[in-house]
Design brief:
The protein is an alpha+beta fold and about 100 residues long. The chain has one domain. The protein has three helices and four strands.
Length: about 100
Amino acid sequence: MSTGFNNIAELKSANEAKGHTWFSNESTDYHGTVTETEVLGGFYFVESSNLNLGEPESGRVFRAVGASPEGVVQYLKGGDKFATLEEAVAYIDGVIADR
């Protein structure tokens, strides 16, 4: 069983190797996304994005993100937005605890 990724760079490489574009400049620029944490529990991290697409002044929202051992990335909890980084990290902590 995979122990996961040690850092975002490893996860990004695995995602790119799958032909996916989660971390591409085009994708992150379009959505205004920022990776807010390193890898948590080997497979999870938090990213933030503009509250309103294309409007940096609209504020930030945070999302919990998970990855498969192969580097396929998706939002957890249906892409629910968290108001703070701490809330998103707490959600991930709960996911990790329930594994």
